[in-house]
Amino acid sequence: MNFEALAGAIIHDLKNQLQSVVGEGERMLDAVPAEYHDQIRPFLSRTRRVHQDAMQLVTLYRLTQRGNFSSDDAWPADTANHASECVAVHYPDVRIMNNIDADCQGFYNDFLLQMALTNLINNSAQAGASEIYLSAEESGADLIIRVEDNGPGFSEAQLSGEFSDDSRSGMGLYFNKLIIKHHSRPGRPATMALTNRAEGGACVTLTLP
Fold it and tell me: What's the pLDDT at 130?
């Protein structure tokens, strides 16, 4: 077994172990009296976040080694709802508004895009946003999805593509770039653009052909 395969196997096992820990934590929360819930929730929230990071590592490995994620007809409103629910567990005080029409349709890998949206929503909440807005539209043959917030916005370094030195972007935006690139088609690249809103806050625009 080469090093890459060994690393992939270890990461996959770590993901499974963390999933078991999350399950045990949720059962513990249900079993103990309500007055102890505030002491358990921070532990459970952090464990879920580490599990999410492990999921990203597994997905990164599969993207870089095999890239075996197929696309199909999918509905952005549902994908965004699932992503919002994942983040709401960690940031219950942040308002996440899904303004995507239920009839809006796209062609993508639902699992990958849900992970990408979860990252973007989580980044906004982590940066200090109290409101996050999700929207999408079909433009010709493209699907355009926007994640906007009322937070501090992106720094000049982030806008210029320097992701590695900042906690808001870090692995999350690099991971998202790989996901979006995976949805490119011959002669029609999928893109992710970072901008700041005129009224304040950040905006990430995903364009999937």
Answer: 97
